[in-house]
Amino acid sequence: MAPLEIPKLAVGDRVQHELLVREREDKVTKAGDPFLTLKLGNATGVLGANVWKEMVPQVQGVRPGQVVQVIGVVEEYAGRRQLKLTAPPRVVPMGGADIEQFLPRITVPEERLWAKIDAWRAEMHGPLRRAVDLFFADESFRAEFARTPGATRGHHALVGGLLLHTCEVADIARASAQTMGGNVTLVTAGALLHDIGKTKTYTVDLAGFDYTRAGMLLQHIVLGSLMLEERLRTLPPQDQLSDEQRLELHHFIQSHHGQLEFGAAVRPMTLEAEILHFADNTSAKGNDFTEAVEDAELFPSAELEFSAKRSWRLERRVWKRSHRWD
Amino acid sequence: MAPLEIPKLAVGDRVQHELLVREREDKVTKAGDPFLTLKLGNATGVLGANVWKEMVPQVQGVRPGQVVQVIGVVEEYAGRRQLKLTAPPRVVPMGGADIEQFLPRITVPEERLWAKIDAWRAEMHGPLRRAVDLFFADESFRAEFARTPGATRGHHALVGGLLLHTCEVADIARASAQTMGGNVTLVTAGALLHDIGKTKTYTVDLAGFDYTRAGMLLQHIVLGSLMLEERLRTLPPQDQLSDEQRLELHHFIQSHHGQLEFGAAVRPMTLEAEILHFADNTSAKGNDFTEAVEDAELFPSAELEFSAKRSWRLERRVWKRSHRWD
Amino acid sequence: MAPLEIPKLAVGDRVQHELLVREREDKVTKAGDPFLTLKLGNATGVLGANVWKEMVPQVQGVRPGQVVQVIGVVEEYAGRRQLKLTAPPRVVPMGGADIEQFLPRITVPEERLWAKIDAWRAEMHGPLRRAVDLFFADESFRAEFARTPGATRGHHALVGGLLLHTCEVADIARASAQTMGGNVTLVTAGALLHDIGKTKTYTVDLAGFDYTRAGMLLQHIVLGSLMLEERLRTLPPQDQLSDEQRLELHHFIQSHHGQLEFGAAVRPMTLEAEILHFADNTSAKGNDFTEAVEDAELFPSAELEFSAKRSWRLERRVWKRSHRWD
Amino acid sequence: MAPLEIPKLAVGDRVQHELLVREREDKVTKAGDPFLTLKLGNATGVLGANVWKEMVPQVQGVRPGQVVQVIGVVEEYAGRRQLKLTAPPRVVPMGGADIEQFLPRITVPEERLWAKIDAWRAEMHGPLRRAVDLFFADESFRAEFARTPGATRGHHALVGGLLLHTCEVADIARASAQTMGGNVTLVTAGALLHDIGKTKTYTVDLAGFDYTRAGMLLQHIVLGSLMLEERLRTLPPQDQLSDEQRLELHHFIQSHHGQLEFGAAVRPMTLEAEILHFADNTSAKGNDFTEAVEDAELFPSAELEFSAKRSWRLERRVWKRSHRWD
Amino acid sequence: MAPLEIPKLAVGDRVQHELLVREREDKVTKAGDPFLTLKLGNATGVLGANVWKEMVPQVQGVRPGQVVQVIGVVEEYAGRRQLKLTAPPRVVPMGGADIEQFLPRITVPEERLWAKIDAWRAEMHGPLRRAVDLFFADESFRAEFARTPGATRGHHALVGGLLLHTCEVADIARASAQTMGGNVTLVTAGALLHDIGKTKTYTVDLAGFDYTRAGMLLQHIVLGSLMLEERLRTLPPQDQLSDEQRLELHHFIQSHHGQLEFGAAVRPMTLEAEILHFADNTSAKGNDFTEAVEDAELFPSAELEFSAKRSWRLERRVWKRSHRWD
Amino acid sequence: MAPLEIPKLAVGDRVQHELLVREREDKVTKAGDPFLTLKLGNATGVLGANVWKEMVPQVQGVRPGQVVQVIGVVEEYAGRRQLKLTAPPRVVPMGGADIEQFLPRITVPEERLWAKIDAWRAEMHGPLRRAVDLFFADESFRAEFARTPGATRGHHALVGGLLLHTCEVADIARASAQTMGGNVTLVTAGALLHDIGKTKTYTVDLAGFDYTRAGMLLQHIVLGSLMLEERLRTLPPQDQLSDEQRLELHHFIQSHHGQLEFGAAVRPMTLEAEILHFADNTSAKGNDFTEAVEDAELFPSAELEFSAKRSWRLERRVWKRSHRWD
């Protein structure tokens, strides 16, 4: 069965699908009656549901991280679509199911992003190509890379987020290098490799995204260099990178956060490393902005021009332009 | 007479040209004899000259900021080309002369940059086009803009530096907006306008670049908004921008330094303003890198792989890659 | 009908007046019954009221920002005076009413402050007088200035707060200039003009104080300079200020926050600008202290010598001296 | 013999006086000849002198910190008055001499400042008066206080500087307390006591101002509280301050630097302590400004409108207004 | 009656003891019924108890800071031991009772710590011994010192915490001085004296630990020097310390926080003062770690390897190692 | 020939030995004559020599980094011993010579330090021992480790400095762990491994200490983890560390700088990692102090009690205690 396309639901639509319980909050009405709110979602989006007093006993066992069979109808409540359950949700055992169909996911097709990466790889030659291919020509790495989020919360916290972020960084870094006289191919390789450590930093399961033990104790920058070093060592002797080349790739990884207080081991020491750093920031903060103007917590009402409070990711209030320029 | 092309001079070439005295330093040899070093330049570059004991009395009146008639021959000294004076330099009165031919200047042809700007303008319509044209369709503003440096010292401190920097920022911001789903035309207008205040912030004369009184007391960000407001007011009533549009253009100017401690009045509150901020940084720091690897103070010997000291502009040492990737 | 003088109410007084609903909080008693607390106020002060279970249904429609007709009697509850409603409050339509009588307001008579300002203006001559009079001799500006708060929350967040703060700053700056050998008249002009931008930064209505769009996007410092420039341009040619004079007035506005990280475009570069900066701080922080020792959230019980928690405005705990020195 | 009034000297005046050698710098002319520059001064000011090759052997023993008998005539050199020695300076033994007549000193008469302090004391009663009088009614403390500088270098680094600074702080704090509704008499006492520890922090001798051992190891804030505690203990039992009163006086001393990073042990917790802190800053920074515009290192030429470099005390460039407002 | 040994209680044990009410939290069940949770403790530890709807009216008067007679049985709830009350707790009047038996207390026997201190004192001679003995040979000081906590909340917030912390600091500082070639005996004296001011900074009563007025207004560092100075003055003339010695002891106290922003009046200027500073930090942060891994708020479930959130004391998440190394 | 023991030289001693030229400075006397100062040294210390006008031509080719044959006699000059050359120094070709005998070296015998390390290793068992022995049971690693300095300049910038620093850190960390209840053996392993990356970070040759390319681009913390990972991989399968064990060793390396802004990839998350961090600081800063009080630049005269200026390593002035405590 095709997954429910949540963004396309209209008031009155009937729903009978499996959805992931993302959040559950138990509350009491002003009249003293227990009720609870659920956030239910799949890869396409999230939908809220209020469970009133009568049905509360029947959802006692429902917890975040479970997949439930939901039967209901879409209604409007306080200006937003939500789900009215017409039957209690039923927990679905997830033994062999495809977990990722229930997790939030990027909306850009993965294939389009891989096509870009493969085209960029095709521009590369010699040692640079060999180094990049150690990861990006390896199907198992590609699979892992494509499911990793960009963060546990914050920018690109989606299945596929790392893949999308990497392509955005490469796009921006390439344009910057073109303009500033840098080495476009080299900075592309830097962009592809800069966050590889995140594949060993985050866990992806129905309970959401979290840190691995290695991610907690070492963070993705160190893990990236350990991964790079491990694979570089597998190259046959005649294909080994020179010392300078090897160190330059590590330097991209180690310096891409720009400053020590943001976790960089060193500050960027080349034009290309500096460009990569700014491209990384532009993708991350740009994504924070595009998500902020869609965020119902920041804009609880449709008339608001400025967010009702500060975005914790951007540490400032955000302007949702209401005028047009054309 | 065509200006001397300093970068093309070879050992043995004879020089008989007018050059600007950029620096003068009086010294004493280990043997106790007075001598002095001059830095002589024009728009194409700079050349050093040592003046020994015998000729010292004849250059007593020569000071930085003067144009002198120089006669000499190019020789090599300590691995660098320098000028051996064969006659004392003679000061040239600069009454009506074209000052700018003696000042350091960008190497990109100005026309190519204007062509880019005019093509970007052609993409714009309605109020955005009208606002941008208030400046960029005005010949006297264009002339002033084209001679202004990007700074008194530091990145783009060249005649034409502001023009070059503005184009770089626009290039990078456009690519970033394209990738991140922003309004490309709008961010281009923001890029064109973000530094207009610098035309009233810096002085350009033979003594070098300096601050105007307004530049010292208010800085270029405030001056930019005062200029924008002044010109916007000249639009006929039917062409006036809406309040939102007017404020958004000011917001680009006021937020482009990103953080208050770097002089922004406010932090960027839109995707486009955030993108402009990072593009501005990428152009500035990128230029710092391309100049650092050419800087004889940072790399006093050709064998150095790392700069001998920190670049004051980048606050770190810089790596001049000696290896090749192709 | 004269407004109710809230600070003078005694236990047992009867109240039958129109009051503004400042806050409403819905709660549940330990016994599970719904109740709610209201904060009701006018220009003279604020009074709390608890609405118990029985009356809750009758106040369902009452919301902050509404004016209500209140009938009740003053009683004591937990050591504080509060209102016991004897009838449900009734919402009053506010079409043409005088909004400001319901908003929190400074207690100093406005006239006394204007008298000070006008006496200071009388000391000024020539261009300084002309510049100051562009604002302070304009009745419509005076009216707007007198109703603007000093902030949306924090120091001087009252109708008239900007007027009071401006007079305090001028008082302190004048004494400082007198002591330190500065120009007393000039610093007075700086004080009068330093916060004029706030008239375009804040909105004043029954829902409380908030930011205008211009205030959010540009902040009051930039708006102040735009306003100053606009009015200066209206002076007849023979009355124009010199370039130095014009820039010095802008410099007061742009530097009065002292440091870039607090929003100044430049640091103060003259004795008078530095004095203005410290006088501004003294007024703001001094007001924070006088309000803190009156704040029931900081001093929830009368015996407390030290505030129960940090004041968010002062970022520290505050001492309410219990001893006497005389 | 009355001391030479250095600020009143005119070109051509003959000098035959004892002066303190403030600085000596040995140099070599461009022609390779040794020469040296002296800075000679007394309480009224400083005068430079160049000693040329011929007289160099006769001044070999002259060193900073010595008093010398000087014979010469005032001449003009590079736009500044300086002394032309007509005989070699002769070192004067300083056994019992009055050292202070040779040190830089405030120009305000000391008596005028004491009159202010004594008038303020007369306003005080009871424990406050007793505490203040423990210091300011003690002749030996007054003598020590009157000769102490405000700092070893920086603001008020003059004999009498502490006395002048204390009066400035009290003046400004009183006006601020008047305006903000604080206790004027109490804040005056705080001002008088806040820097008493400086009398044990600095040394004053012909070699200039320096730190005592206690000043280096503990700084003036701790020393102030130790001194206050020591004297308070000498009060007879019936005159003892209450615990609150005693702690409040210590709190003024301990909090007057405002923030921990500037050496305060605690942040100000009362209106009066906060006011004292800002008054202290206003006096210190105000003095930095009045000295900066007179400083020949910052303004090496009379035409300069902006200082040629940053003032290290103010960490910024300074504007010397060239226009008039009247 | 011996106090109840809370850490040794097993499920099923009966409790009939006096315990201190540490916390009380009133809540409502999902079904709308009131209930409350108590934290009850004595010197050996803390035990939770839930009071359900039926018994709520009988505990209305029970508040934190009271000692109550408790009757109940130990049961298991959500994986943790807690107390099931079988009768309502009864408030015990605390007139002359020994308060400290109810407060949280260090588990190391006090005697063992005093034995260490006395052995260290025995190593000292001459002025160092005399200075240390002014405090540590004084029974009333010892009693006060032994009951003072190390902080009101945070590291060593226990009766006896100051004593334990002081011994830890001395232990670490001695080892460091031994290794780095410092004066072991001197640094021991510095360790013993560094926090003496805390005895006048904190209050200890059944309501928990809090600040004294002097502690709020001056903090423990200043108070320490005032105490030291007061006692040093009592030495007979022939036993007085030299000026250097006296200042060095004060310097230990004033510099032990290392940096001004953490409350030090001066930075450490000797090897021994620097060592003391790091030893102080090691004890404080080390204690934060040992308490963090035992903290049920940080590790709400036994399977957690990383704390569920940041420790506010350490400002980071903490790893509870689950593996073994032996 | 045994190396010259520089610290034992007395005035009048004859010198005829090979010494390394550490520094050369060319100067001109006041009389205009050229002269130069040399600093000559070996592993035991450094000695200055002035070369006067007559001998200057004969030392033209002498440069820092060369070993020269020196003939002269020890004399006293300005209160310090220095060398009077009686013959021009002769450059010695250094083809196969033992470079390290000429470099500054720790004074503690290397053997004593290795004995400590080997005793600590003997305490370890199982995986911890295996991991440590991968480095410290490898003779070639030991040789490299023993010649590496602790830094290029600053603390422990000596041949053997890394070995000494490592032992100091282990000593202090062991005592701290003992006191705070940590795992002593584990923290010892952390101490031994924390700086292994420095062996690949610094170069050691006659020109002094410098950075390797890898050291510049990645710094020692990353290099340490790369080295650890590389060697761990060589363990036979049955001897492999568990994932937790492996990550904990990396965590020691990555967190030992304590805070991100000082280069740590993560903050310490265990008691042992925190202890290691403070022990590292104590050794580094303690060494700064012991060297500061011996530093002739900080204490140019023997009477000084406080350093004449700030130590750049400690960022403060230093007190050289002149009194005794025993």
TrEMBL record, chains A, B, C, D, E, F:
Q: Which residues form a coiled coil?
A: none
Highest taxon of source: Bacteria
Is S-adenosyl-L-methionine included in the keywords of this UniProt record? no
What processes does the entry annotate via GO biological process terms? Answer: rRNA 3'-end processing
Q: Which PROSITE patterns match?
A: HD (PS51831)
PANTHER family cross-referenced by the UniProt entry = 3'-5' EXORIBONUCLEASE YHAM
Provide the protein name. Answer: HD domain-containing protein
